[in-house]
Write a structure and sequence with these properties.
- The structure holds 2 protein chains of 2 kinds.
- Chain A is α/β, with parallel strands linked by helices.
- Chain A has helices spanning 2-15, 20-31, 46-56, 72-76, 110-122, 157-160, 174-183, 199-210, 216-231, 241-257, 265-276, 289-299, and strands spanning 35-39, 61-65, 77-82, 87-92, 99-103, 124-127, 130-133, 139-144, 163-167, 235-237, 281-282.
- In chain A, helix 2 (20-31) crosses helix 10 (241-257) and helix 10 (241-257) packs across helix 11.
- Chain A has 12 helices and 11 strands.
- Chain A folds into 2 domains: 2-206, Rossmann fold, CATH 3.40.50; 211-299, Orthogonal Bundle (Helicase, Ruva Protein, domain 3), CATH 1.10.8.
- By secondary structure, chain B is α+β, with helices and mostly antiparallel strands.
- Among the domains of chain B are: 2-191, no CATH class; 593-689, no CATH class.
- In chain B, the strands form 5 sheets. Chain B has a 6-stranded antiparallel β-sheet. In chain B, strands 7-3-14-17-18 form a 5-stranded antiparallel β-sheet. In chain B, strands 1-5-4 form a 3-stranded antiparallel β-sheet, with no helix packed on it.
- The chains are: A alpha/beta, B alpha+beta.
- Chain A: Keywords: ATP-binding, Nucleotide-binding.
- Chain A: This is MoxR-like ATPase.
């Protein structure tokens, strides 16, 4: 099963060039049943990554382009009057899918953003007093532009918290970019990629991730990381217990990806930044957010 | 943050159980002070404390005291304390002030800070109690007081627990905790008791003026000593080197001699304060050790007849008595020697006229009698015999003689013919002086109760006695005890048996065990045992400082003040510095035994090259990877060790533990053997690339 997952990583990496670590993290996020937020400037390959993941995992997916005039019903669906039956019938929205690509999620208004909230957390949609279950597995892969871009509504903390990881791709390095330029747009290759895994296999892999063993010293380490983030002067809002749980979840998936059935501190360190970054509020006068997060890793001793 | 905490702690209000505990603590602490503080204060304190207790238990029944009421109360108590402090002698005023302050403080017992003040004052009151009473019971009570104080203090800091649990449970747990704390501090207390030097107070405290109210004084007139029979206070205790007391008839304890007579009173001759070496010791002399109670006087007690030199600090006087250098404000311990029969060394009598002086006139009948004897040509011995014969035939020995007026000696010799030892001594000394025989009166004690359990003689105030010494040519001073002539049983029997029925005997303590014991033999035995215990207490605990002095002297030579300070403060300072270091040192986390190898490796390599130390955020796999690059020779060992580490530590495969430890040992051993040149030199380059 693990080599199938490895195939996934390879397949995605063949499209999203030179970003193997990010791809692995994204895969880990899905193995950990987490929703993924990809933040980057336009044109960095966010959507490509999301597309590729959806395709390779063999999931039924839909893509919603978020805009500022969008309403919750545009995503969740709504009741429409059926003249023949003389009654309202429910028309499911695009959210009823295994994987929802929420493109440029921060372009929509907070109202629409929060419509996703219940769906992401509970795996269900309530509309007109009826609760409808979403399919399993259900993922949201959202992309967003950095908050400095014009025409954006930054996601509130509570909503950011729903995403297990926030990744950013960044500019490719020189060699990769040259390959990219020579090859042209890779996006059309996506449909040619093999589907490496089906949803049943994915569920198995998710269960296997859950069963990764977490020893006391690692729990202790994670707790100390969380505690340090709360006590640190550079950080206004530290890691919540839910954030710490997310950290364990993501680390487990990383350990599974690394072919281990137990967690080591290295796993925690690998996923730390992507899990924790968007959950902390760093003091503004601090030069850079990543510095504060990296500081936590550097200052907290792995051994107690 | 901590400052804020401190403020909130100080102003944290006290809840009812804590207040109750504090009030109970104060009650317990003040009980021994009842005998010292004035009655009015005791009553007011009792009322205030009872009222506060009631208001704690039944708050709805007790309205708050109005502000002016408090003001009046405080002003009144302050006035009363001032007045009683002026009137009080010695330290009674201090105790009064403390108790009054503590009791008034309870009126504003609100915050934790008030509680702390109260606890501190309570500690002080408990300590002050020892100025007045140092008996074993007082020490025991002091311990109990400490337990109670600590209980209140612990309850103050238990916080919310008090509310949720029952008062009884809380006080029980706090009480046992405080008892445990006290028990834990016992070893330290014992060490301090053994080695802490007893520094004499920097200022002189007028201790216990009341000590002077009983006991002998520097002059005597008839009636003074019978007054002492009212008291059963302990005068002194004696132990003998042979553990056997001298026979009752030889238990004459000399305190002082009166040689000056003014017609009414006998007083001490000033010039007898001469230091002499005394006779040399001989076989058969008695060696004894005295523990004298504080009396506020200088005289000590010498068993007749003193010989040789007493221990240091005791002055021996030419009349055979001993004297201390300064008034006895605390218990003193000394040893001395006595010979059973006086050895006359042929010294002539100095200042004969002083021992013969009587006023020119007065007591005509006595003069006539003496003239009659002299006309008969009787010798000194015959005159003494004749006088004693008179006593023996016609006189009564009683504690309550009739009052004498005018020519007292005539009246005593010829009309009342009854009296206590001082009346007889007075008449004998006077009459013999009239007859031309030099005399002096000796004041002291006769008798003592032998305690078979601890083997010591206990002499009480009621055993005070006066007798006469007369100078006989060729024999020196000889003891004449007229009391022995009139009532020989005074000499041979215990005093308390003799006078058990006299109403004056121990009139000051009518219910004391001594009065009751004649009917109850078990009580008598119990009392002796208690006194034996008390004696050991006095001798080994309270009297320890003298032994300690000699012990310290043996170790460190003679102690002066500076030396003592150095001895005291250097070790204590060192210990304190150690404790502070221990508390403040950068505490390395208690490393798990599994992690020890990594820590040791990091430390060892850090000594070779600081860059090789593991940094905080570095995991073991990262570290071992880094080491593998730098230490190519150990690559395989590191790989093996690292794999085992992960298996044992994170995968928790415990069966590999032994192998892991073995691998760790080998690796650490090898790393410790490493030299600088074993380390890959371009390590730094690689590190920077990384």
């Amino acid at each position: 099963m693990r080599d199938r997952i490895e195939q996934v990583v390879n397949a995605v990496s063949s499209v999203v060039l030179g970003k193997e670590d990010t791809v692995r993290l994204a895969v880990a996020c899905m193995l950990a049943r987490g929703h993924l937020l990809i933040e980057d400037l336009p044109g960095m390959g966010k959507t490509t990554l999301a597309h590729t993941l959806a395709h390779v995992f063999g999931l039924e997916y839909r893509r919603v382009q978020f805009t500022s005039d969008m309403l919750p019903a545009d995503i969740l669906g709504g009741s429409v009057f059926d003249q023949q039956a003389s009654s309202f019938t429910y028309h499911p929205g695009p959210i009823f899918t295994q994987l929802l690509l929420a493109d440029e999620i921060n372009r929509s208004t907070p109202k629409t953003q929060s419509a996703l909230l219940e769906a992401m957390e509970e795996g269900q949609v309530s509309s007109d007093g009826v609760t409808r279950q979403l399919p399993v597995p259900f993922f949201v892969i959202a992309t967003q532009n950095p908050g400095s871009q014009s025409g954006t509504f930054p996601l509130p903390e509570s909503q950011l918290d729903r995403f297990l990881m926030k990744l950013s791709l960044g500019y490719p390095d020189a060699d990769t970019e040259k390959v990219l330029l020579k090859h042209g747009d890779t996006r059309r290759d996506i449909s040619q990629l093999p589907v490496c895994i089906d949803s049943a296999l994915l569920l198995d892999a998710q269960i296997a991730c859950q069963q990764v063993r977490v020893s006391d010293p690692v729990v202790d380490y994670i707790q100390r990381l969380a505690q340090f983030s709360r006590d640190s002067d550079d950080i206004v809002l530290g890691l919540s217990p839910r954030g710490a749980l997310a950290l364990i979840q993501a680390s487990k998936a990383w350990a599974y990806l690394s072919g281990r059935d137990y967690l080591i501190p290295d796993d925690v360190q690998k996923v730390f930044s992507s899990v924790v970054d968007h959950r902390l509020i760093v003091r503004l006068d601090h030069d850079s957010k990543t510095n504060a997060v990296r500081n936590i890793l550097a200052k907290v001793d792995v051994l107690n | 943050m901590s400052v804020l905490k401190g403020v909130s702690q100080k102003s944290a209000s006290l809840d009812t159980p804590v207040k109750t505990a504090l009030i109970v603590m104060l009650l317990v602490i003040c009980v021994p002070q009842l005998v010292i503080i004035p009655l009015w204060l005791a009553i007011i304190a009792g009322c205030i404390l009872a009222w506060i207790l009631l208001s704690l238990i039944r708050p709805e029944r007790c309205p708050n005291m109005p502000r002016w009421g408090r003001g009046v109360l405080v002003a009144g108590v302050i006035l009363g304390v001032l007045m009683s402090a002026v009137a009080a002698q010695g330290l009674g005023g201090l105790s009064t002030l403390l108790v009054a302050a503590a009791v008034l403080k309870t009126l504003e017992l609100k915050t934790r800070r008030d509680g702390w003040v109260l606890v501190l004052v309570a500690c002080f009151i408990a300590a002050v109690g020892f100025l007045f009473n140092q008996s074993m019971l007082a020490a025991l009570y002091g311990l109990i007081s400490l337990v109670v104080i600590f209980t209140a203090l612990i309850m103050m800091h238990q916080g919310d627990q008090n509310g949720s649990l029952g008062f009884r449970i809380v006080i029980k747990s706090a009480g046992s905790k405080s008892a445990v704390i006290l028990l834990q501090s016992m070893p330290l207390m014992l060490i301090l008791f053994l080695i802490f030097p007893r520094i004499s107070p920097l200022w002189s405290v007028q201790l216990q003026h009341s000590a002077a109210k009983t006991g002998l004084s520097d002059s005597m007139s008839p009636g003074d000593i019978s007054q002492l029979a009212r008291s059963d206070d302990v005068a002194f205790r004696v132990s003998f080197s042979t553990d056997r007391p001298p026979p009752p008839a030889a238990r004459y304890w000399r305190a002082m001699t009166y040689s000056v007579f003014d017609g009414r009173r006998w007083s001490m001759g000033k010039d007898t304060l001469i230091r002499t070496a005394g006779n040399t010791l001989q076989q058969g002399d008695i060696e004894y050790q005295v523990i004298a109670e504080p009396s506020a006087h200088v005289w000590l007690f010498a068993l007749d007849y003193s010989v040789g030199a007493p221990s240091q600090g005791v002055l021996s006087v030419s009349d055979g008595s001993y004297r201390a250098g300064s008034p006895l404000l605390e218990r003193i311990n000394y040893h001395a020697y006595a010979e059973v029969t006086r050895r006359y060394n042929g010294e002539p009598l100095n200042e004969r006229s002083r021992y013969l002086f009587v006023p020119e006139t007065g007591n005509p009948k006595s003069r006539a009698l003496v003239n009659q004897w002299r006309k008969k040509g009787m010798t000194s011995e015959e005159i003494i015999d004749a006088l004693f014969m008179r006593f023996n035939q016609h006189f009564y020995y009683t504690l309550s003689p009739q009052r004498l007026t005018d020519d007292r000696i005539d009246q005593f010799l010829f009309s009342t013919q009854e009296g206590f030892c001082e009346h007889f001594a007075n008449a004998t000394a006077y009459t013999l002086r009239l007859a031309g025989i030099p005399t002096r009166i000796v004041a002291g004690y006769l008798g003592g109760e032998w305690n078979p359990y601890e083997k010591y003689l206990l002499v009480r105030q009621y055993e005070a006695h006066a007798w006469v010494e007369a100078w006989v040519e060729g024999k020196g001073w000889i003891r004449l005890d007229p009391t022995a002539a009139v009532a020989p049983e005074r000499v041979t029997q215990p005093f308390d048996l003799l006078f058990a029925d006299a109403p004056e005997f121990m009139a000051d303590s009518p219910l004391s065990a001594i009065n009751l014991q004649h009917n109850l033999t078990w009580l008598s035995a119990g009392r002796l045992r208690y006194e034996a215990l008390n004696y050991s207490w006095h001798r080994w605990v309270l009297g320890y400082h003298q032994e300690q002095n000699s012990l310290l002297e043996e170790w460190f030579g003679r102690l002066n003040f500076i030396k003592m300070l150095l001895l005291l403060f250097i070790p204590v300072g060192c210990v304190l510095a150690l404790v502070i270091w221990w508390l403040l040192r950068a505490r390395p986390h208690s490393v798990s035994p599994l992690d020890k190898a990594a820590v040791t490796m990091s430390d060892t390599l850090g000594r070779l090259a600081p860059a090789l130390q593991r940094v905080h955020g570095e995991t073991i796999s990262q570290y071992s990877r880094r080491l593998k690059e730098v230490l190519p020779g150990l690559r395989e060992e590191l790989e093996e060790w690292h794999t085992l580490y992960q298996r044992v530590r994170y995968a928790q495969i415990l069966s590999d533990e032994a192998v892991y430890y073995k691998s760790s040992r080998q690796l650490v051993y090898k790393i410790k053997r490493l030299e600088k040149h074993d380390i890959d030199t371009d390590m730094d380059v690689r590190r920077s690339v990384r």
